[in-house]
Design goal:
375 residues; alpha+beta; Aminopeptidase; 2 domains; two-stranded antiparallel ribbon; 12 helices; 29% strand; globular
Length: 375
C-alpha cells in the first residue's frame, strides 16, 4: 500500500478534492452535502475577499492511487495582526480512517506553515472562525444546521494521536417552540424595555444598504473581545450579506434601537440544510425545483448572530432581541431554534440560553499544537 500527497493543481485534483466528502460520508444519513459551487468559491482566491489578507495551499492525499484525504493550510494575516500571534490554520480536512493518511496531511500543512513563519497550528477552520469551523465532538446522531459542520467521530482520535490538544470547545443549544418562554424571562424583558426605552425592528429591505452598514458596525463591535474573532473587512461583510440576503427572512433579522440608533442585532435564518440534503451538492434546474419545494418544509431556524455594541453589553438588550426573535419565529410556525455556536467559557450567553429553555445538545472542538512539535 502506498500513500502519496501532492498539491491541488489540475482539474482532476480539484474534482477529487471537492468530491472527497461524498466518499467519506457515504451512507451516513446525517451528513448534508455542501453545494460544490459554494466550496469552490470559498477556496477561490479571486472570488473570496478573505484571500486578500490570507493565503493558502491545498493538499490531496491518495492511497493506492485513490483519493484518501485532503487539507488546506491557511495563513490569515489579519488574524495574526489582530491577536498578535504567529498562528497558522488547517481547514477543509477530510480523511479516511487511516492515521498514516491523516499524519501525512498534517505534516504537509505544518511544513508549509512553518515555511510561512508560523509557530502554532490551529483548526479546523474553513477557512476562518467566521465560517464553518471545528470538529464535531458530541451530537453525531443528528444532522448539522445551516453553516455548521458535521465531521467523522474518528477525526477526534486521529487529531489527538497526532498530538493536537484542545484549544476551545463550542456549544450549540436547542430551544423548542412548544416549551414557550419562561415567565421570569417575560418579566425581565418587560423591565429592560422600560429601563432602556429600547425598541426592536426588523431589517428594512427598502433601506438595504443602510441596514447592512448598521449590521457591519454592530458585528465588529459586539464580538471584538471574543476568542478567535477577527473583524471582517467591508468586502467580506458585503459577500456575507449577499449570501444571507438569499436565505434570510427580514422578520428574523432584528435591530435593537435606542433613540432611533441601532445598538444591537440578532440574525436568525431558516435551516436550509433541510433543503440542501436533497440537492446532492448541485443547483441545476431540477435541483432548483427541489429547492423551492423543500424550502416550504423547513421546520427550524438557527440563531446565527446575536450581539450588542460594547457600551450596551450590560443592559440586557440582548435578552429583548432574543425574546422578540423567538416570538417572530414561533409566529411563522417554526418548531425549534438552534442557538450558537457559543464559546464554552462564554458563561453569560450560555446561562441566558439555558434560562430561556435551551439545552446543550451538540459540542464542537477546535484543536491546536506547536508547529515545531515532532509527532
Amino acid at each position: 500500500m502506498s500513500i502519496t500527497v501532492g498539491l491541488v493543481r489540475d482539474k482532476k485534483d480539484w474534482q477529487d478534492f471537492l468530491k472527497l466528502p461524498w466518499q467519506i460520508y457515504q451512507g451516513n444519513p446525517n451528513w448534508v452535502p455542501p453545494l460544490l459551487s459554494e466550496v469552490r468559491e470559498t477556496l477561490d482566491t479571486q472570488k473570496n475577499p478573505f484571500w486578500e489578507h490570507a493565503r493558502r495551499e491545498l493538499f490531496l492525499a491518495r492511497k493506492d492511487g485513490k483519493p484518501a484525504g485532503r487539507i488546506a493550510a491557511i495563513v490569515d494575516d489579519n488574524h495574526n495582526r489582530f491577536h498578535q500571534e504567529e498562528t497558522g490554520f488547517f481547514g477543509f480536512f477530510e480523511c479516511i480512517d487511516d492515521f498514516d493518511v491523516a499524519k501525512i496531511l498534517w505534516d504537509e500543512a505544518r511544513n508549509w506553515l512553518k515555511a510561512q513563519g508560523m509557530k502554532k497550528l490551529r483548526g479546523p477552520v474553513n477557512p476562518s472562525m467566521n465560517d464553518e469551523c471545528a470538529f464535531l465532538l458530541e451530537g453525531f446522531d443528528l444532522p448539522p444546521t445551516i453553516m455548521m459542520p458535521y465531521t467523522q467521530r474518528y477525526y477526534l482520535d486521529l487529531a489527538e494521536k497526532y498530538g493536537f490538544k484542545k484549544a476551545k470547545d463550542l456549544y450549540a443549544l436547542l430551544k423548542m417552540a412548544k416549551d414557550g418562554i419562561p415567565e421570569r424571562i417575560e418579566r425581565m424583558v418587560t423591565a429592560i424595555k422600560k429601563k432602556t426605552s429600547v425598541t426592536i425592528r426588523p431589517f428594512n429591505m427598502k433601506n438595504y444598504e443602510q441596514d447592512i452598514q448598521h449590521l457591519k458596525d454592530i458585528y465588529n463591535s459586539a464580538w471584538e473581545r471574543n476568542w478567535g474573532f477577527v473583524p471582517m473587512t467591508d468586502k467580506e461583510m458585503d459577500l456575507t450579506a449577499k449570501k444571507l440576503k438569499q436565505l434570510a427572512d427580514p422578520d428574523l433579522v432584528l435591530f435593537a434601537e435606542i433613540d432611533g440608533k441601532p445598538v444591537g442585532l440578532t440574525v436568525t435564518i431558516p435551516d436550509y440544510n433541510q433543503v440542501l440534503k436533497h440537492l446532492n451538492g448541485r443547483l441545476g434546474p431540477i435541483e432548483m425545483l427541489k429547492f423551492l419545494y423543500y424550502r416550504k418544509k423547513i421546520t427550524g431556524v438557527r440563531s446565527l448572530i446575536g450581539g450588542v455594541k460594547k457600551e450596551f453589553r450590560n443592559t440586557g438588550i440582548i435578552a429583548v432581541l432574543y425574546y422578540q426573535t423567538e416570538k417572530n419565529a414561533a409566529g411563522k410556525g417554526y418548531q425549534w431554534c438552534e442557538l450558537g455556536w457559543n464559546l464554552e467559557d462564554n458563561d453569560l450567553i450560555n446561562q441566558f440560553d439555558i434560562a430561556i429553555g435551551g439545552r446543550i445538545y451538540k459540542k464542537y472542538r477546535i484543536y491546536e499544537m506547536p508547529i515545531n512539535t515532532i509527532s
